[in-house]
Amino acid sequence: MDYQFDQSEAYQKLTELSNKYAKLSLKEVFNSDSERAKKFSRSWKDCYLDFSKHILNEEILSELLHLAEEAGLSRGIEAMFSGEKINVNENRAVLHTALRDLPSAVRLYEGENVMPAVHEVLDRMEDFTKKVHQGVFLGASQKKITDVVNIGIGGSDLGPVMVSEALKSEGSKLQVHYVSNVDGFHLEQTLRGLNPENTLFVIVSKTFTTQETMTNALAAKAWISEHLGEGAIAQHFVAVSTNIPAAKGFGIEEAHVFGFWDWVGGRYSLWGAVGLSIMLEYGAAVFRELLEGAREMDEHFRSTSFDQNLPVLLALIGIWNNNFLHHPTLAILPYAQGLHRFPAFLQQADMESNGKHCNKLGKRLSYQSGPVIWGEAGTNGQHAFYQLIHQGTQVIPVDFIAYVRPTSKYVDHHQKLLANFIAQSEALMNGINFDDVCIELNEQGMPPHQVLQLAPFKVFDGNRPSTSMLWETLNPRNLGALIAMYEHKIFVQGWVWDVYSYDQWGVELGKKLAQRILPQIKGESSLAHDSSTTELIRRSKKIKAS
Predict the structure, then answer these.
(1) Is the peptide bond before 379 cis (omega within 30 degrees of 0)?
(2) CATH 3.40.50.10490 domain range(s) in the chain
């Protein structure tokens, strides 16, 4: 019989183990096993991954690894890397890993090695970047480019802007700004203070038809035309797109259209031409280091046994928490200000990939697929939502991410940051019981009746699962590896859940309906809707420019 997640032998066994060990006490297992942290941690290059603070033991981990084998994960990994069309619903391969592979590699798609084309685009990006940095490529007024505005949305924005924020310590060569929202306030606020003569726009849209992106692009075009004339467009706009005719029709020179391929999904596309703004901000050397870190993680993922494989272990632990312990969310909590956009990036990468309700046969799932991903940079989150994580009625697994070496000169700040990073996972695991709270309050001299009154509110249940990921430093190579690790984790989970991770039909319906509603808001048509939608449209017709 073909593999089905909830019909597999491992699934049945893991269900039994979840019933057996659901109340396993982390505090007790740590007290009874001095080697636990060593058993349930792994090291790879600059990364130390500690998953010992999960409701996990060797029996459970062994069965999770059996689940991966039963799902045919090895075959799935090779299918992805070898260019098989595993995005079946769109008849496409999933080859974003080729964007960061070596020029000497052979990566086949429909019998053709894609690597020459990949590196031809990278070389063109580098050549253009050098011309901008050296003042060879100038604006229409022969002024040097100082500011870049990246206009895109979804994968054409979230990946690049996340990397841009993460690498600020590298030192920017240009000021790069990102506009994604079709709310005109986003573009207006970005353009305020910019000089058209020194501004370059990078329009990122595979089809060059994305509504939000093209609305912003046309407004930016009008802004340049108003200040510099229509003839200036070619010197102030470049495109990342597969639709060369549309880009040329916009006024962009074909030499300044950087393409990519249908085997690159939007949320996995920052490694190629979609990363042009990253290269413009930091230079080609930094961008290639980013690619190299991801390539190293690709090699680790592809060649390492599952029991030592970081993405595989992360994925399997996530499946255990989600499907067997019934914790359907995951908080991503980076203790690094540079990664403050990383949770938002992973929201798209994960939830758009595995937020599916049917398996590969089109049958409705009887189990939970992708988790809800959310988070914020530490220590900000500690003063916001950690209350719910520590004392709320639902258990929320956490991925903590931190770096040993600071990216600023403030060592004292960084030591305090790391102290909080470590303390939070310890607090989630151990908690504090009623008796210990009473002892603390008594030692503080509180009257006994007040102790009994206050103590219940200061109890922390503990036994709340977390992963701690400690990297040496936040640099381009390690950032590339981190992103690739989560990309592969998402792939593993989708493969085990037996869902198609690389389509996103769920985003289509709302977009389709918006196209019907827009003319109604403008008063150009009238269509029947439910009473709520009809009233919202009626009230929206009152729109006026501020």
Answers:
(1) yes
(2) 5-70+304-430+464-501, 96-289
Query: What is the rounded distance in angstroms from the CA atom of residue 417 to the CA atom of residue 378?
Result: 8
Residues with Cβ within 8 Å of residue 490, at least 6 apart in sequence: 315, 349, 350, 353, 354, 501
Q: In this structure, what token pair is assigned to residue 17?
A: 């183990």
Question: What span, in angstroms and rounded, lies between the C-alpha atoms of 15 and 421?
Answer: 32
* Mean pLDDT of the residues in the chain: 96
Is the distance from CB of 310 to CB of 201 less than 8 angstroms? no
Q: What is the spatial distance between Cα 300 and Cα 292, in angstroms, rounded to a whole number? A: 12
Count CA atoms within 13 Å of residue 369 on its CB side.
Answer: 23
DSSP 338: G
Pair 94, 510: CB distance under 8 Å: no
Nearest to 339 by CA among 487, 465, 467, 483: 483
In this predicted model, what pLDDT tens digit does every residue of 220-246 receive, in sequence order?
999 999 999 999 999 999 999 999 999
Distance CA 535, CA 537 (A): 5
* Residue that wins the pLDDT comparison between 543 and 459: 459
Q: How far apart are CA 90 and CA 105, in angstroms?
A: 26
Residue type, 29: V
Name the helix (H) or strand (E) containing 147. Answer: strand 147-151
Residue 1 has pLDDT above 60, yes or no: no
- The two three-digit tokens of residue 339, written as one number: 């990664």
CB 475 within 8 A of CB 406: no
Query: Rounded to an integer, what distance in angstroms lies between the CA atom of residue 458 and that of residue 436?
Result: 10
| pLDDT for position 525 | 85
Contact 202, 240 (CB under 8 A): yes
Residue 127: its H or E element: helix 115-133
pLDDT at 312: 98
Q: Would you say residue 543 has pLDDT above 80?
A: no
* DSSP reduced 3-state for 307: helix
Residues identified as active-site: 352, 383, 511
Tokens at 415, concatenated: 């030591």
Q: Is 524 exposed, middle or buried (0-12, 13-18, 19+ CB in 10 A)?
A: exposed
Where do runs of H (alpha helix) occur along 139-182?
A: 158-166
Q: Which helix (H) or strand (E) holds 52?
A: strand 47-53
Tens of pLDDT, residue by residue over 52-87, are 999 999 999 999 999 999 999 999 999 999 999 999
Into which CATH architecture does domain 96-289 fall? 3-Layer(aba) Sandwich (3.40)
Task: State the pLDDT at residue 542.
Answer: 77
Which tens digits make up the pLDDT trace of 294-337?
999 999 999 999 999 999 999 999 999 999 999 999 999 999 99
Between the alpha carbon of residue 103 and those of residues 123, 126, 194, 282, the distances in Å are 11, 15, 38, 22
Fold category of 5-70+304-430+464-501 in CATH: Rossmann fold (3.40.50)
